[in-house]
């Protein structure tokens, strides 16, 4: 975690630009003070905690053009009077306990006339699309403090702050980033009145994963962890996607390996391949494991299957 402080409009503009997106600051008092703590959990996810005197933040079209960003920001307003957020011709008031989503890729303005304390969850467009889909319709739309899913997300982010210094394992931090993304998506679905994830995004990602599995069956290390790493999501989310097929990632990989093996044994062009070679072609590390798995599914050993095909 890095802590940044500011004692003037110029310093605060730099702090906010470094922590969120390049912007300008208007109308701050001469005795202004502001502090920001930034915790990065993955290349796509960070949590920013700030406390400041009254301020007016503007990310103009010039800022957007000169320094483009592709992040969504969810603001959790924890202390202070109500503030105003403007983006794309929309204006929303955010009060203590509420949350507000905005898009850093487009111009925006915040106005907070009192001292405030806030937590901001910063998630890339691509990452949120994995969990939710297109979130643009939910921008500049306050999420009420009574929303149970928002309260769960808020509690999770508070706990992250409490244990931040203990989280030294990079893999753990990435897992926690994915959890934050999932909780954010759940809160947004709840706010939108949708009880299930947007199918299009999930189905597209699942198709990509299935294609990846079929293209890499010869890799003996292929499994849920490799699939998750390749697609920049958590193992838990990979498991959730394959559950839509009524299976698990490991079971799907095993099924595809055995189907490839069956086709190889049936292919007359590969009759010279021994059983061990067929096993290796399909990602099995030894012929014994392959034979047992094949017999469990097809009721015969690979050799018996090949012999039966020839006899037929």
List keywords for this structure.
6-stranded antiparallel beta sheet, elongated, 312 residues
Q: Average pLDDT value?
A: 88
Shape: elongated
| Number of distinct beta strands | 11
Structural class: alpha+beta
Distance between the termini: 68 Å
| Helix fraction by DSSP (H/I, runs of at least 4) | 40-55%
Radius of gyration: 26 Å
Helix segment count? 12
Strand order of the largest sheet: 1-3-4-11-6-9
Helix/strand order:
EHEEEEHEEEEEEHHHHHHHHHH
What is the chains' assembly state? single chain
Beta-strand percentage range: 15-25%
Could you name the ranges where pLDDT drops below 50 across 5 or more consecutive residues?
194-200
Report on the biggest sheet.
6 strands, antiparallel
Question: Would you give an account of this structure?
Answer:
The chain has twelve helices and eleven strands. With 312 residues, the chain is α+β, with helices and mostly antiparallel strands. The radius of gyration is 26 Å and the shape is elongated. The model is unreliable at 194-200 (pLDDT under 50).
């Amino acid at each position: 975690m890095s802590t940044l402080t500011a004692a003037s409009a110029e310093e605060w503009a730099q702090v906010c630009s470094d922590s969120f997106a390049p912007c300008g600051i208007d109308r701050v008092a001469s005795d202004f003070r502001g502090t920001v703590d930034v915790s990065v959990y993955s290349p796509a996810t960070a949590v920013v905690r700030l406390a400041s005197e009254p301020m007016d933040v503007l990310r103009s079209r010039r800022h957007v053009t000169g320094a483009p960003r592709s992040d969504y920001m969810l603001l959790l307003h924890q202390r202070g009077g109500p503030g105003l957020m403007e983006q794309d011709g929309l204006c929303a008031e955010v009060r203590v306990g509420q949350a507000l989503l905005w898009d850093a890729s487009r111009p925006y303005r915040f106005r907070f006339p009192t001292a405030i304390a806030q937590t901001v969850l910063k998630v890339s467009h691509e990452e949120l699309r994995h969990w939710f889909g297109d979130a643009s319709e939910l921008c500049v739309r306050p999420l009420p403090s009574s929303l149970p899913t928002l309260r769960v997300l808020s509690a999770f982010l508070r706990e992250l702050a409490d244990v931040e210094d203990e989280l030294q394992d990079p893999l753990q931090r990435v897992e926690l980033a994915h959890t934050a993304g999932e909780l954010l998506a759940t809160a947004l679905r709840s706010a939108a009145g949708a009880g299930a994830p947007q199918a299009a995004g999930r189905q597209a990602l699942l198709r990509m994963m299935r294609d990846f599995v079929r293209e890499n069956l010869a890799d003996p290390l292929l499994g849920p962890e490799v699939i998750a790493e390749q697609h920049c999501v958590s193992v838990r989310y990979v498991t959730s996607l394959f559950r839509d097929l009524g299976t698990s990632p490991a079971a799907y990989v095993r099924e595809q390996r055995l189907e490839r093996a069956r086709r190889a044994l049936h292919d007359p062009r590969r009759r010279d391949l021994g059983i061990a070679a067929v096993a290796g072609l399909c990602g099995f590390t030894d012929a014994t494991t392959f034979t047992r798995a094949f017999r469990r599914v097809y009721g015969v050993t690979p050799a018996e299957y090949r012999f039966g095909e020839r006899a037929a």
